[in-house]
């Protein structure tokens, strides 16, 4: 306690919110624990996404991460929240440079709690589908993400929610990485095990509009797109909905049978599953996806559409450039980018969330 009887903490501008900070706690963790949200990426000081400016007080950043910011940024008082701790009793930081708006910072409905594993499935050769019991009063919107910490550990990873808000489980699609520390721990999870979760976070959500919708996913990028598509189709709007999903081979195409059935049920839904094995050497999944888009969409139809992209950075960059060059208005483009690091970041105009593999 300080002399004024208050817990030590930080005030986050431009929102004026005061966040309690525990001894030794990273500032980003304190913000998330309080149910608030700021954009972040790698979660270990490598990407520079969670930058903030120290307005007052003593905030110390881990020396190992100082080189992520250039000398001028450090001189201007900028720090990375994911690798900084509070050294004084109080401090003020400004996160305005991240572009976050108040509704996102508010983190409406987010929690930090423990829940139970109900199942661990393999929807495709390279994926886990981890099913959790929804915490009380917890309703992630399609496209949002949550953070997960496994028993006995304090490392967090961020994963997209692949289930609908009204589902009886919270489904997380996780790409399998042989030898990965987190994946090894996931292999040991069984129904009934407890895990710690926090969230939901992010603004990568489908709009309620009558515009045609294009969804493009690379590999595990199908995770957040699945509930967004289900929500769109079940709303009853007959505007065209097109899904392009790429994988190395058919075993990578999670939920393939489900999407085939949806295409048979809904006349306005088109599903293009694409594989890169056996195609011309050097042709990437993003190239195949771009070709599939061109076959279905002219510049005129793209101008009347909105697009949702999810996959690795290079995949999303290639598709985003292609769509905008060919007629899509950038205000109607939203992207969810996977990184090899642990964490997620929310960008603006368009939203860009980063997830762990």
UniProtKB/TrEMBL annotation:
Keywords: 2Fe-2S, Iron, Iron-sulfur, Metal-binding
Cofactor (UniProt): FAD
Species whose genome carries this gene: Pseudonocardia sulfidoxydans NBRC 16205
Limits of the FAD-binding FR-type domain: 110-207
InterPro entries: 2Fe-2S_ferredoxin-like_sf, 2Fe-2S_ferredoxin-type, 2Fe2S_fd_BS, Beta-grasp_dom_sf, Cbr1-like_FAD-bd_dom, FAD-bd_FR_type, FNR_nucleotide-bd, MRET
Top-rank taxon, per record: Bacteria
GO molecular function, one term: oxidoreductase activity
Record-given protein name: Phenol hydroxylase P5 protein
Keyword Membrane belongs to the record: no
2Fe-2S ferredoxin-type domain segment(s): 8-99
PROSITE patterns tied to this protein: 2FE2S_FER_1 (PS00197), 2FE2S_FER_2 (PS51085), FAD_FR (PS51384)
